[in-house]
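Researcher: Here's a chain I'd like modeled. Treat it as a single chain, no partners, no ligands.
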Amino acid sequence: MLITEFGAAADGRLCTEAIQRAIDAAAAQGGGRVVVPAGDYLTGGLVLRSHVELHLEAGSTLRFTDDFDAYPVLRLRWEGWEQESHRPLIYARGEEHVSVTGSGTLEGQGRKWWTAFRAGEMKAARPCFVCFEECRHVLMADFTLRNSPAWSIHPVACENVGVRGLTIINPYDSPNTDGIDPESCRGVRISDCYVDVGDDCIAIKAGTEDCDRLIPCEDITITGCTMVHGHGGVVLGSEMSGSIRRVSIAGCVFDGTDRGIRIKTRRGRGGSVEDICVTGLIMHDVLCPVVVNSMYFCGKGGKDPVVTDLRALPVNEGTPHVRRILIADCIVTGARSAAGCIYGLPEAPIEDFSILNTTVHLVKAEPEVPVMNALARPVTCAGLTAEHVRGLTLRNFRITGAEGDAIVLHDAETTD
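Model: Modeled as a single isolated chain. Structure tokens:
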């Protein structure tokens, strides 16, 4: 059914109610496709229902109003814990077989949100663009998404999620406009996406220690994607208290991202990041291609002294663990700051970390900080540093252009 049949018109007037009526009518008859035909339609927030596909035809744009009052404030998961947040622009909770497809465009008009956030004027967290919570059988395919107020795609506690063929573009300096952030989900497939954003391109999350309920994020595949300008290409954490496990990342290109593969956590988070396989990546013009940071200092509690305490502290439920990480068959050109930073904790060393058949070419640039913790200092053309690692394998790993030692180990046990 067409949204125009329910009164929506591409005439600059708000047509939220008409589009929602079309969605609800499709759900009432057991499901179906709700079609947005060519044209530019102004709307507020929309709620999807089970067995409903919102389909954007070629030449269509859903332009979401930047009137904050169009998005009611709910208690939602945001940055790893439940807090007061504006409802996402497209939202569903507890539904199944929900999808957004087609070659049209979702326009978030995020600038007003970014300005209010920077000015400290937000009374509740900014909305994500597309968020599905506790849903099963979710599909997002082929559309373009622009100018999200905050995170762009955010499935939370969902099962069987497909994300394919998306183009996500947010300005490089827009705050917290991550591309695709599956959180506490199971069975996620992300493929053939182009992501150019102002924060992490793809970030896998599993909540923080402040969550009401911790659920792992597991069985994730990321293939054939291109990441541009983000803070990280593919990031695991820092919200990982429910554990992140069984992730495969293959055949992707990172161009101009700050960091490439990035694992971040800290004391107090608990949980684990484990069984991660990264193969066949091409990276160019990156700050640092591989970062494992167990002293990540951003966000709530990140500046507490315990985060960067260099002593071996007692292991408890808040101690995070990183283990069984494989990076193989990758080529990195134009790395500016360092070839890699792998930092475990003295009481919880990283276990079984391997880099195989990989080449990193460093280039001289202005010194920058390769890893976001309070102990790091700006460097350029630094090699690989590994601290507090058990079972480090570096085989056919070549670094060119390093100033000083290409590999620096501290409390790191190698297998060769």
